[in-house]
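Progress report, Aim 2. The chain analyzed during this reporting quarter is listed below.
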Amino acid sequence: MESPSAVPDNTSAAETVASIDDLMRKILIRLPMKKLSRLRLVSKRFASFILTLDFNRASGLVFPHFIDMIRGFYVLANVEPWYEFTPFFVHDDEDEDRKEEYYDDCPFDGKFIEDSSGVRVIQSCNGLFLCRSHVGRKFRRIYYVYNSTSKKYATLPVGVIDMKTVRGMCLAFDFTKSPYYKVVCVCALSSRSKDSRFRIEVYSSETGAWRSYEESFTSRVHFEYGVYWNGAIHWIWSTSDDQDQPIYFNPDMDRTPKVMPALPTLDGDYKTRNCYFGESCDHLHYIDVYKTLTQFSVYEMKKDYSEWFVKYKVDLSNIGSNLFSILAVIRGCDLNDDDDPFLVLKLRGNVIRYDLNRGTCETIAWFMGDNDRYTISKCPAAKTPLQLIDCLCQV
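Predicted structure tokens for the chain:
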């Protein structure tokens, strides 16, 4: 009598392996990212299987927010410790398991990379952090790409670049499209600080080499403060009092940046108090908050770059103060909802979660110690919170 578990004689070895792989995929896609990260250490086969692009694409399809599991963000401080971790869920006593997972290995400090001068994180991008050594002179800086899930990092080979001309570096990474990341480096044509002509160099983790684009362009944006979305890096913050045209650069398609639609402004003589510009779950948002006003709009950019449109209307008059700062716009983080949008605000040392659909507020965290440590500037990119997203990418 044939055993129920026996493989039929007419089943090929390839078919058997394929059926086992399919079963393994169905099991693994339901595991939390932290457990998957540990499973990679079990065997080379597990590591190879989990890290394949097909597996991660399948994970995104079966479990829509698997890739973009945003646990929270780090707010940059003015003094050590440089980072304060804030989760995106409300503190309650009934969800201890979730709390433990969210706070696991958090927070980190500037010593997570072995660099005697210390390290500052300058950008987060879909689970990877772009970091640089914390030294005074630009031409001596070392750049790193760090994965906080695996706690691995890679040092960027910048020896071919004249570091005196570097005006900004940004990560371009989307694991649903490629397991490799790119780093976009904007260089001035000369080392003079006021030089407004630039060119671009792109590093690829796939080739381990830089590619130079000799075409030059002119702009007056802060190239240190880029946001990755839709396959491109976007810069909107101007270096002058007059707002320059926002631009974007796709490292897979472009040789020089392209122009975006102008930023939306409010009619009338209003002075901007603080702004927000960031990406969440494949949506690019912009907010401009004006002094004395507690009502504003959340704008979103269309995928074809045709226009900014109003996505949400916000009224914060019920919070009792207009002295708030916008830390983040978050979309699609509720696994039971395709789009559960909320604002994250800083108000009197508290972190507030504002539901964009219901108009309700909840305190989710508070900053420890001196509140002046976490000053948010008008151009918030210098203090923009760094999203913590679990990621299995190899660096």
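The helical segments are 13-28, 33-39, 44-51, 53-62, 96-103. The CA atoms of residues 32 and 313 lie 34 Å apart. These observations will guide the mutagenesis work planned for the next reporting period.
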